[in-house]
């Protein structure tokens, strides 16, 4: 390829290196010039253009990118058409993205004109996520380099998506007096949420004494009806002969590895009974934060069986404590949101400002209807308008009474046993109830009586107008309020939330556009005190 300025009279058939604008039209970069183009440019006193002129064997940037993309096996991948020298590659299944740094490196070392970038090796992805991109830097590239790179990609996969396969999972939890029952309940809920992302089912929980023989007996009994066994010890593993690894061996299995160079996640045990994996989970897996257990679980659910070499290689990148989130590249214009918005109604809090324990603001009645039911009926009315397809209600404090107040309503309940820790746990719990196809999560507080179905419809309409690529927030005279819609690209950050915090810092730091929708005073009125309940016309019930 020859690149540089040429006289207008000799530019026919060349490729524009920079866009040129005339009074009547714009010729974009990469445009192949025609005689009509040159006539138009001559009339605007353009005498010279910077162009690329192909030589024998050259391929244009789009032809080169498309040819490289055609060498990639399309299993569980979607490849975009080439445009401006770029081809983007997307996952078509939820699973584990596996990449070969050797192959990607070989492609990138053929010539600087050819680039291939992808996600890190062994990260979980959802259908629709962008996992790789091919970019041709100049406007054209010698075809011999393209063929060499294509041959590398055909000879060995640079990357693939291994779909998660649903598993029937058993949880064995050991008990000690020092371990609270509430912690064990939370562990069960979080493990179920982790498994749900792959379509797997936490079919059985067995609680046993923290003794080798008790754990071994449970493993032996559960192996026949399950595809995977997870053991949470009441006390951390301190030795390869400690209770959990010893129990695996006593049950007739073998222990492949104890410990891993991932923090948090060091104290993991990986064993097996024939073809049934048995994982001794580290204590950090009782938290929703990403840890080494997630990495091993994802591999098992994708059909891999990590060996000691795989596990010991995880040290580089294994320091997770200071990494609050792991963003992944997105391209909203090519990959719009995958499905409708789901509404998550938060109804798990303790209502601590309401005074005596017997009174709960969400059970306060307005015209004989509990506040929580009134709020959920508002959300369901938006569903009936066709703007959303699912309403999820997160419950926790006084859960039986809250659910009884919602009896007969077509909602999905999600329990949050950790509601006392604050709002973050309810957001994470609500996220676990979303379908795979959800394009966004509308977070609605259950104590905002001024919010109407029309308000929700307006918020979701604004989200649709942005193709699901923006945060949409209710405001009152410009002051931020609620509800808020979080797009799919923020879900990973939501899962990292802990403590009594909401999604405000995600909204402000996610880098996405923020669209404010004026709802008036309703966006900022919530009922946190008995006086507020009375002023709004409600009656507190004991």
From TrEMBL:
Give GO terms: molecular function aspect only.
kinase activity; nucleotidyltransferase activity
The record's keywords, sorted A to Z, are: Kinase, Magnesium, Transferase
Q: According to the UniProt entry, where is the signal peptide?
A: none
What Pfam families has UniProt attached to this entry? MoCF_biosynth, NTP_transf_3
InterPro entries attached here?
Bifunc_Mopterin-bd, MoaB/Mog-like_dom_sf, MoaB/Mog_dom, MobA-like_NTP_Trfase, Nucleotide-diphossugar_trans
Domain MoaB/Mog as annotated: residue spans: 170-302
Q: What is this protein called?
A: 4-diphosphocytidyl-2C-methyl-D-erythritol kinase
Species assigned in the record: Sinorhizobium alkalisoli
Query: Could you read off the lineage of the organism from its UniProt record?
Result: Bacteria, Pseudomonadati, Pseudomonadota, Alphaproteobacteria, Hyphomicrobiales
């Amino acid at each position: 390829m020859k690149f540089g300025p040429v006289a207008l009279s000799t530019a026919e058939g060349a490729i524009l290196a920079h866009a040129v604008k005339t009074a009547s039209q714009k010729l974009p970069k990469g445009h192949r010039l025609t005689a009509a183009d040159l006539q138009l440019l001559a009339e605007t006193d353009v005498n010279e253009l910077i162009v690329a002129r192909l030589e024998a064997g050259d391929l244009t940037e789009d032809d080169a990118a498309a040819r490289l993309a055609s060498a990639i096996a399309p299993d569980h991948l979607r490849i975009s058409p080439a445009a401006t020298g770029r081809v983007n590659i997307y996952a078509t299944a939820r699973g584990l993205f596996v990449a070969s740094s050797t192959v990607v490196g070989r492609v990138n070392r053929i010539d600087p004109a050819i680039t291939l970038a992808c996600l890190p090796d062994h990260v979980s992805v959802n259908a629709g996520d962008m996992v790789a991109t091919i970019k041709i830097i100049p406007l054209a590239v010698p075809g011999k380099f393209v063929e060499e790179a294509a041959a590398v990609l055909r000879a060995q996969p640079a990357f693939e998506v291994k779909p998660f396969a649903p598993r029937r999972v058993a949880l064995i939890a050991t008990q000690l007096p020092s371990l609270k029952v509430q912690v064990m309940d939370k562990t069960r809920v979080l493990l179920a949420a982790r498994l749900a992302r792959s379509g797997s089912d936490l079919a059985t929980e067995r609680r046993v004494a923290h003794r080798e023989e008790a754990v071994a007996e449970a493993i032996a009994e559960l192996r026949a009806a399950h595809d995977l066994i997870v053991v949470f010890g009441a006390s951390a593993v301190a030795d390869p002969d400690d209770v959990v690894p010893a129990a695996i061996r006593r049950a007739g299995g073998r222990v492949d590895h104890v410990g891993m160079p991932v923090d948090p996640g060091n104290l993991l045990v990986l064993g097996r009974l024939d073809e049934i994996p048995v994982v001794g989970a580290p204590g950090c897996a009782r938290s929703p934060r990403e840890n080494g257990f997630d990495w091993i679980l994802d591999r098992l659910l994708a059909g891999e069986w990590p060996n000691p070499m795989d596990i010991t290689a995880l040290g580089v990148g294994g320091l997770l404590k200071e990494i609050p989130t792991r963003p992944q590249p997105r391209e909203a214009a090519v990959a719009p949101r995958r499905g409708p918005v789901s509404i998550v109604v938060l109804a798990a809090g303790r209502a601590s400002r309401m005074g005596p324990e017997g009174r709960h603001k969400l059970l306060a009645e307005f015209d004989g209807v509990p506040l929580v039911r009134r709020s959920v009926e508002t959300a369901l009315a938006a569903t009936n308008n066709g703007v959303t397809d699912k309403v999820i209600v997160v419950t926790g404090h006084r859960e039986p009474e809250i659910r009884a107040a919602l009896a007969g309503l077509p909602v999905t309940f999600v329990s949050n046993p950790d509601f006392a820790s604050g709002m973050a746990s309810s957001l994470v719990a609500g996220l676990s109830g979303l379908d795979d196809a959800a394009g966004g999560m509308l977070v609605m507080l259950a104590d905002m009586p001024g919010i109407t179905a029309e308000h929700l419809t307006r918020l979701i309409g604004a989200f649709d107008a942005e193709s699901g690529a923006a945060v949409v927030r209710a405001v009152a005279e410009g002051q931020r309020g609620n509800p808020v819609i979080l797009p799919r690209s923020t879900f990973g950050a939501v899962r990292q939330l802990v403590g009594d915090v909401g999604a405000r810092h995600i909204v402000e730091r996610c880098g996405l556009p923020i669209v404010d929708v004026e709802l008036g005073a309703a966006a900022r009125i919530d009922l946190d005190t008995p006086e507020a309940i009375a002023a709004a016309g409600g009656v507190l019930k004991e």
